[in-house]
Amino acid sequence: MNYNPNYSNGSIREELEKLEHETLSEYATFSDQSKGRERSEAPCDIRPVFQRDRDRILHSKSFRRLKGKTQVFLAPKGDHYRTRLTHTLEVAQNARTIAKALRLNEDLAEAIALGHDLGHTPFGHAGERALNTVIEGGFRHNEQSLRVVEKLEKDGRGLNLTFEVRDGILNHEMNLMPATFEGQVVRFSDKIAYTAADIDDAIRAEIIKEEDIPRELTDALGHSLRERLNTLIHAVISNSYKTKKISMPEETYEKFMALRKFMFENVYTNPIAKGEEGKAQKLVLRLYEYYVRYPEKMPEEYTRLVAEGKESVERMACDYVAGMTDNYAVNTFNEICVPKYWNMY
After folding, report:
1. Model confidence over 91-131: pLDDT tens digits?
2. Angle between helices 250-263 and 181-204 (to 10 degrees)
3. Exposed/middle/buried for 121, CB within 10 Å: 0-12, 13-18, 19+?
4. Quick check: 314 and 333 in contact, CB under 8 A?
5. Which residues pair with 70 in a beta bridge?
6. Fewest CB within 10 angstroms: 134, 159, 261, 321, which?
7. Cα 224 from Cα 158, distance rounded (Å)
8. How open is the CA angle 102-107-112, to the nearest 5 degrees?
9. 298 exposure class (CB count in 10 Å sphere: 0-12, 13-18, 19+)
10. In degrees rounded to 5, what are phi and psi of residue 90?
11. What pTM value is reported for the model?
12. Are 298 and 304 in contact (CB under 8 A)?
C-alpha cells in the first residue's frame, strides 16, 4: 500500500488517524475515538492523542526518577542489574512487539507501559509495604501511578492524560482488567518482563542457577532469557489471534504461573536478595513520620496542596516519600537523622 498523505488538506494528525482506521485491527483502540481527557485542550496538529500521552510521560520528572529506583535487588554490586526504569523500557518493548503483531495501537500500549510503574516507591516493594501500613486506605503502586499522572506531576496539575492511558496504568495488575486490548497487552507484558529479567538478575547475583529451575518449566518455556521471552511473547500473540482476547494458551499460562511461584519462593523472599529490606522499610517509615511532623520541610508544590485544603499532610508526606529515588531517600535520612560528625566516618 502506498501512503501519500496530502497535508495541505488537513493536519498530519488527521492523516495518521485515518491511517489507523486503514491498517489496525477492529479490536484496536483508535486515537480519534478516545474517551478524552479530564480537561479539554486543543489537539496537536502532528501527534494523535496516545502518542502525545506517551511523550508527556517520557518527559515527566517521575519517569526520570525511575532510573534511581530498585527493581528487585537493593544496591546491587554491578552495572547490569535492572532498575525500575530499565524494567519499564523492557515492558514497553514487549508491549509494542505484541501490539504490532496483533495490529493494535502501539502508541497506546507504549504510553501505558511507560507510565505503569511511576508510582513505585524507593526500594521497590519494600517501600510499598512500609507506606501501606501508615496511609489511610493503604498504598498500592498501581493506584499511586495513576495519582502521579493525575495529581502530582506538573506542580499538582497532572499530565491530563486520556482515559485509555489512565485506565491501563491503574489496571495493569493481573487481578484487574483494563478496558482496552492495549491495556491487556501491557498487563501481560509487565509480568513477562519482570519474571524473565528477574531470573537473569538472580543468576547474575548467584542466588539461583539455571539448573535450579524445575526442568519441566525450562523445557516448556526455555532455557535462557532470550528463549523464555520468545516463548511467552509468541504464546500471547498466537493465542490472542485465536481467542480474540489477550491471553496465553492454558498450558503455557500454567507453566508461567509455576515459574513465577518458583521466583517468589527462591528469589523474592530469599534472604540474600531481600536481607536489607527491613532496614529500607524502617527508613521509609522514618521519612514519612518526619514529614508528617514537619510538613514545611517538603517542597512547595506539596505544602501548597495542604495549605489549599486539597490534601492532608499525611497524604502529601506519603506522596513525597514515595516519589524519592533510593539514593535521595538514603541521603535525606542521613541529613535529618544522623549527626553530621558521624557521617564523616
Report:
1. 999 999 999 999 999 999 999 999 999 999 999 889 999 99
2. 40
3. buried
4. no
5. 83
6. 261
7. 41
8. 95
9. buried
10. -70, -40
11. 0.94
12. no
